[in-house]
């Protein structure tokens, strides 16, 4: 049906796009074409509200821009999963002191918003002729903001490779496996110092790091889109200038960071975590088409649902291929067969995850754990080759916990529609660097070099207890087509449709 739909024949000015049958699919497709007509969608909500009035709202709709803003404020806000975030900030001579201060303001704004979750850590690397360690990963976000405010401006060349490799060293030495690892690269130019940048970006992504790349201005390298994690509609951004970076971009970035995944290691078989009620934590699990994959959600305290998908990056109750419920008495289990994984591999020509592109897996199984207990849920998510489901059922006398339904029948998995991202081959060995230590005349804190692991303040989160003996297996499958689009477009459309009521 969609292939034969003619937007020009829709009477959208008189409400055709507000008909429930058409509103979601047609609205998203239409909005995705706006930029082709130079109707660039703004980043901030007030500007999006006026954009909706100018280009989308039908004449018979009496809602105003303020209604759009009010509805946006009513929407459920994301709950950050906790993360390790490293900023890689360009300090080369093309920036200028005023724009460099705007870059500082941007970093401070993001760090300040990260204070909402006490399990967040941040680190900072400055680069010009070489990379300089400004701040090792730390829980002390107030001190981090002070250090960034006094961060030196180098006025040198642009060595992006050195910054990426320094972040690699920091995550290798001190990164946590139970939270997403995120690197945020900000630059306004083209690398003109150091070794090739593409292999350094691949090394960082191969480690399991979510790499955001932000190009500022019109002189920035086009390769940023190749260096970013996949899909680049979520991880790559092109901004007009540093004023936009410092003002409207932080809010969008924070919404994107909420959806980053823990990229599970192919050298490990489990990852611990904690999740609150209705909070979702996302994972990318490596899988082999030869062996199949078993997921086991072992609950130490609370209750949760595990969703898995072979096509949707953020599986949920409304969009998943497999699901299982889990409590302290019942182990949540999902087995995905080699045939199902092979089918997903055959259908994934339009979108290839970093894990697959970099040779870390045949298929990526996108997984989420959603808390359903009133109290915090403490769990361990196991991922194992082959079918290792536990089939023994032990009766329990406790009342059942209300959980998401798991009655869907399996259907054919549909391919996604996003074009593949070309990633440079990993042909270069990691570069060994001896970072310098950032010191400020106004900040007395000493920063350790990245050649030794930092000693962070203990996280306020609890450590999962020894996994319990599983007693009950639960697994179901379902599937539905997916429509990928830039995340800020999805945010805009969500508010747009919410405004129609």
From TrEMBL:
Q: How is this protein named in the record?
A: VWFA domain-containing protein
- The VWFA domain covers 84-252
Region annotation (Disordered) ranges = 427-480
A Pfam family it matches: VWA
Q: Which PANTHER family match?
A: COLLAGEN ALPHA (PTHR24020), PH DOMAIN-CONTAINING PROTEIN (PTHR24020:SF20)
Specify the domain of life of the species encoding this protein: Eukaryota
Compositionally biased tracts (Low complexity): 427-438, 449-480
């Amino acid at each position: 049906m969609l292939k034969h739909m003619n937007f020009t024949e829709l009477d959208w000015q008189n409400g055709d796009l507000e008909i429930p049958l058409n509103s979601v699919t047609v609205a998203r497709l239409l909005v995705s074409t706006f930029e082709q007509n130079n109707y660039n969608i703004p980043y901030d909500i007030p500007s999006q509200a006026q954009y909706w009035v100018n280009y989308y709202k039908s004449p018979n709709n009496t809602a105003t821009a303020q209604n759009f803003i009010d509805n946006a404020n009513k929407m459920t806000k994301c709950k950050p999963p906790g993360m390790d975030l490293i900023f890689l900030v360009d300090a080369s001579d093309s920036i200028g002191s005023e724009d460099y201060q705007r870059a500082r303001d941007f970093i401070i704004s993001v760090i300040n918003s990260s204070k909402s979750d006490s399990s967040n850590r941040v680190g900072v690397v400055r680069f010009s002729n070489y990379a300089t360690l400004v701040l090792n990963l730390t829980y002390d976000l107030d001190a981090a903001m002070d250090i960034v405010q006094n961060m030196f401006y180098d006025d040198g060349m642009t060595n992006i490779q050195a910054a990426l490799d320094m972040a690699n060293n920091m995550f290798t030495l001190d990164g946590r496996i139970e939270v997403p690892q995120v690197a945020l690269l900000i630059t306004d130019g083209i690398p003109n110092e150091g070794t090739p940048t593409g292999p350094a970006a691949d090394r960082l992504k191969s480690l399991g790091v979510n790499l955001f790349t932000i190009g500022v201005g019109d002189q920035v390298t086009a390769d940023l889109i190749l260096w970013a994690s996949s899909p680049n509609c979520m991880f790559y951004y092109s901004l007009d200038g540093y004023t936009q970076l410092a003002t409207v971009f932080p809010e969008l970035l924070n919404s994107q960071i909420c959806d980053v995944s823990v990229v599970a290691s192919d050298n490990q078989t489990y990852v611990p975590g904690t999740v609150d009620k209705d909070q979702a934590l996302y994972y990318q699990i490596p899988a082999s088409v030869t062996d199949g994959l078993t997921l086991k959600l072992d609950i130490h305290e609370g209750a949760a649902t595990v969703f898995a998908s072979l096509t949707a990056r953020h599986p949920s109750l409304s969009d998943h291929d497999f699901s299982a419920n889990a409590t302290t008495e019942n182990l949540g289990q999902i087995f995905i067969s080699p045939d199902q994984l092979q089918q997903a591999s055959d259908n994934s020509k339009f979108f290839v995850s970093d894990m697959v592109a970099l040779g870390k897996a045949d298929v990526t199984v996108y997984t989420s754990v959603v808390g359903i207990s009133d109290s915090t849920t403490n769990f361990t998510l196991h991922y194992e080759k082959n079918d290792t489901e536990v089939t023994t059922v032990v009766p329990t006398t406790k009342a059942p916990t209300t959980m998401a339904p798991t009655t869907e029948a399996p259907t054919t998995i549909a391919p996604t529609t996003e074009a593949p991202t070309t990633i440079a081959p990993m042909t270069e060995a990691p570069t060994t660097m001896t970072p310098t230590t950032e010191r400020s005349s106004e900040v007395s804190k000493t920063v350790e070099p990245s050649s030794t692991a930092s000693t962070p303040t203990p996280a306020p989160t609890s450590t999962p207890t020894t996994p319990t003996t599983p007693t009950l297996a639960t697994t179901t499958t379902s599937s539905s087509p997916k429509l990928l689009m830039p995340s800020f477009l999805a945010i805009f459309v969500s508010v747009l449709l919410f405004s129609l009521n």
